[in-house]
Amino acid sequence: MNTRACVCTVLGLLLLLTISLSHSTVAAARCQVSNVSYSVPAQAAPAQQIESTTTVSGSCVSNGEDYYSVRVDFVDAPSGSIVSSNSTPIGYSATNFTVMVENFATTPSNNGTWHLNIDVYVIRAGGTAGSYLLDYRTMSNATVQIGAPAPVPEFPIAESFTVVIGSFVASVAAQRRRKHRFS
Q1: 169 in a structural domain
Q2: Residue 5: helix, strand or coil by DSSP?
């Protein structure tokens, strides 16, 4: 391809890009979550049902025609499975909102630390995705201790000191025996 053809192709692409950008409309987000707080129990028994409350604050560009709600999903972080999902209506006027969403989830059946993600969605007109999903936020630091915490093994300092000294003495004695054998 000659230089003139390359220059014409590049100029044509730039012109097409300029025209497409000048006709696009940049719209502000319809809704914005400004604050999310949640409460989960710090500790629970295995296979126990727990209750959690998530408070969501935000604002939407609302003309009173659309109906808004907030959905909160509790997601098991390692597997990505939704363990609880619930929604609470905001209503038709969502210019400034604060709603509380209650979730109930059953803890895993084995002891350990349960890591949860809390996914928050603002939804228009009862939809779940696409143009109905207006804002989204994930909180990924929720944990619940399932069962009693695992005890930290104790190793008293006197015993550990004895083990270290005994190992040192045994290795020195073994090296001396080798030297006497080969001398």
Answers
A1: no
A2: helix
